[in-house]
Fold alpha-L-fucosidase.
Amino acid sequence: KPKERRELQYGPLHPGKRTDAAMQRFREYGLGQFIHWGVYAIAGGEWNGVKAPTASEWIRSWSGKTAPDNWKATYDNLYKQFNPVSFDATRWAKQAKAMGARYVIFTTKHHDGFCMWPSRFSDYTIRQSPYQKDIVRQIVDAYAKEGIDVYLYFSIIDWHNKDYRSASPKTAGEKASYQKFLDYTRNQLFELLNNYPQIKGFWFDGTWDKAWIDSYAFTYQLEKDLRAAHPGLIIGSRFRNDEYGKRHFDSNGDLLGDYEQGWERKLPAKYEWLNGNDWDCVMTIPPNGWGYIKDWSPFYTKTSYDLIDMLMHATSMGGNFVLNFGPDGNGNMSPGEDRLAKEIGEWVQLNGEAVYGVTHAPLEPNSYGYFTQKGNTLYLTVFNRPVNNLIRIKMPKSATEVPTAASLLVSGTSLKMKFTDIGLDLDRNIYVDITLPDTFVSQQPFVIKIITKSGK
Ligand code: JFZ
């Protein structure tokens, strides 16, 4: 017997998928850039004997044996040294553009509470640092100028605000204090919308505390008001929960927000897991570190090959892939990030047709690589080239589109294509063999472009 649906007062504001232009644009991004930048960049994962094993942006809360007693106070004074003299938003934006990023997500405020814009509602902002200038504005302007859509990361957790708490408020005093925190959060969000009206959305984080979860009536209204103030605004599933405390998906399993925001440093193995929802995957280069890390040498850091694989994995399942950068305290990307941005950009420059504005292709996954689709064109990005140079594609017998021509995207060279009976099976699937020329050598993943035509 089908489970009865729960009557919800604080479920999704937009049941079903959005069809407006802003959301359609989101679906077509393909590749994005995440930037984690704040006071933690000065520490770079290691400061005063404190060494964050991974997540360097969390260093304030690493309280291992070697941490001095006054470590948190030390961290809370680091902003007095935040003076990224080399910061040039235009340089970053141009790099992101060259990498092929179509949107950027920038940390306006991480868990430590430090605001990268001069917030009127806090005394712990870029204005109080020696640098003084509004960093969020520079990012928004420079990226917008490059045609890259801007999203603002915002942490609800705020270790600096004395009214912030993780446990649910119990006493009247606690409740009044937490209400102050909620009002502060609301004020900051409207401040960001007012200051930077070009932004396309918010990327929320730090929303897992019980106090926030219990504030579902407040957060519901807040989401409603933010959307009303900024038509087209995109908010992921990590902002709020329903009245039963269900996060990302409500008590009926329906998505909260415009896209699934839970794909963090992981990718779905099966397209079906996504239930047709929009989504993006945010990914670090080191194993789990979002802020600047001085020394990458203890870690495996992903190569451009790894990252392009993940990019195509994501786009083949209808998602966007967002690569994180953690600039240093002076305002420079690390040399490793510079190199990866360049390598990814070179690849995307050649193969972008298979990356942007594509959808999931309704074909069985194969071991060669990933399919993406645009209208009557299929793209197969090959990561594993078979030793016999023969790519066999299985189409379901129900396929209404059949392949008519195949070529190498990078050169336009047409490829021999034959329907084969070797694979003929009881299900009468259609098998198409594409032969790669022996003379075609590639050190990179490459794309086979397949034109299909209605065959029925
Ligand atoms: C959060 C932050 O704590 C972290 O510092 C970083 O900003 C990242 C993007 O977001 O970390 C999370 C949040 C959620 C999950 C994992 C890490 N999650 O749902 O698996």
Observations:
- Residues 36, 55, 57-58, 205, 262, 264, 282, 290 surround JFZ (CB under 6 Å).
- The two ends are 39 Å apart (CA to CA).
